[in-house]
């Protein structure tokens, strides 16, 4: 027993065997004893020694019986049918958890323990044995002392008298509850397995190593429209076309040989159409681990596959639509920009003629409306380009301070109109030259500063730049734009960076705008490797801050060092009511090695100067650098006061103003060394100072020559649009150039052949032959004729998508002007030709 305890099934087997053995032994013993003691009549003893031997044998047998009964694991019982009494062996009681004094010896006591559901069946089995002598082996539940029922295997054998009446019956009970539990568990797992196999919406079958079906679930039978019996023993070749059956066989053999899981989506075409099945195949092994076949589970994934195919097709269609959208945008922008070119350009031209003040005002409105329409078109175009992933940053060296200065000049007009100070400062550690996309950086700053001015009604807007980090090849800069405007509610700090979102929709009408500017800026900043954030409180202004990375420009290092030696002994008196401005001016002058004294008001300036005059010996007179717009005493009043002071008549004055024209008018004949237009560019201030002191400028920034100082050129204009022709002719003639107009590329090539032109302005989209073709043709002919002269060709086009510039250059053109071109842009394109 000890040996088999660890192996439940064997243990169980031995228990049964021992039980049966003990039960039979008991039954045989009981029968023998009964037969010996009761069944047979005693015969007279003829031989006392034989009697003694028999008695000894009987005693030995009884002892053996008692021993067997005591040692049996089953509970023995012995029923005297006629007396109605039962002998229950101690083990019988023990199995039921009863004490030796419990249960008594009646037959009814035993019956009373039967489970109500088993009572009838037990009685019937017993009667069948007693009456019909059928073997008695019966399973039933008996109640134990705990009140729980346990399963028992009850066996017995009766004795019958000569009349066939059962007189005695003996047997055993064996606890088989564990066995029953195990059987039930096995059955229920069998049922579970079957119900899964049969009810899951999958096809399932097994094959032996020869490829013969050994099992198929109902679903698979239905699929083949055959019963399991019809399927068993057949192979795939009996159900599928040879080619398919061969594939299935190959897959099965591979799975059986490698043991690897086979996964595939198989396509089947039958009379009902195209079907897709997802298939899993695995080995089937027996209890000893020997591979005996394969099994396959597969299910219909046609719907999913169809949906995937539809999605793929939809994606391709969407991508094509996106390309079409981009092309549409390119064309649309071309179509809109071309008339805009005419509208803005013509207006610019008319504005330069003699007009009544009303006419001028109306035309200025037309100009402004045209400009803002163009801004909207550009924003939508940019946003679409970014969305389509077609926004690419350019990379070229540029002078940051110059760029900032000129970008802010035009915004300065807006700020001035609203009476706001627009100030900018660039910390000294920020390099002068950096490499990046100046146009896009300008666009971001234009948007942020433009917004700051738009949403500020008084106070100032300050743009600051400082360096966050640098290494040998790159530099990370941080830009911040702070205003003292209306502020933004915290809940809108994130939202405003989404497309078409404005902090307060009700302000739309009041402030205007598309809600695209910040969305575009954020994406551009992202492309520059940075992030933008806003800090703001309602009524307390806003600060937008972003970082961007740029390349370092090795070729310009140190080239813009200003010659400040000439400033030796020069002192400056700064007068500005705006503290930030004062601070920035002081910083700039200090950086150039100048001694500066700064005051807030004209009155304080006069006091300071008076105090200076009283010193002995009197120190050098400072250069007065004064703001024009100041409360109480403005710049003009200050200057005339100062000039009236004895000893200060010759004081040199530089005036800073948001409106040069206004200031110049006011100052009239007053001798002012320089008027500077705010926001002030460092280089402008430097140049003004140099001029004021009387030296030549050593600033690296060359002044822009006046447009009308250009030598005359013979220009060939290839342009099919009448309005554009007029605009270009108007500008070019104003600058003293002569113009010949052709309306298509072919005519341009023919006209060029005459060899009389200095430059060609070439539209890209033209009938007969487009500008790209024409440029290519001219370059080819130049090459073929070994011509030494190469005519400059400037593309003039409304195409503004990435790559258009490259297309023009690849076609042999030299530069590129986008429509609607402005006077300045056309001038910039022509200037290199003039300077050659
Ligand atoms: P737009 O200015 O064309 O409406 P933007 O994307 O540039 O679009 O700005 C989105 C919104 O963010 C603005 O409509 C405004 O509500 C808010 N906003 C942006 N800048 C400021 C600012 N400096 N002060 C207050 N609100 C601002």
Helix content: 40-55%
Radius of gyration: 54 Å
Query: How many DSSP H or I helices?
Result: 25
Task: Report the oligomer.
Answer: single chain
Work out the number of β strands.
27
The end-to-end span amounts to 115 Å
The shape, in one word, is elongated
Percent range for β-strand residues: 15-25%
Major sheet, described briefly? Answer: 7 strands, mixed
Give the low-confidence spans.
Answer: 1-24, 30-42, 695-708
Structural class assignment: alpha/beta
- Heterogens: adenosine-5'-diphosphate
| Mean residue pLDDT | 82
Protein model, in words:
The protein is α/β, with parallel strands linked by helices and 836 residues long. The protein has 25 helices and 27 strands. The protein is elongated and about 175 Å long. The model is unreliable at 1-24, 30-42 and 695-708 (pLDDT under 50). Adenosine-5'-diphosphate is lined by residues 447, 451-452, 455, 483, 485-486, 488, 496, 502-504, 507, 513-519, 542.
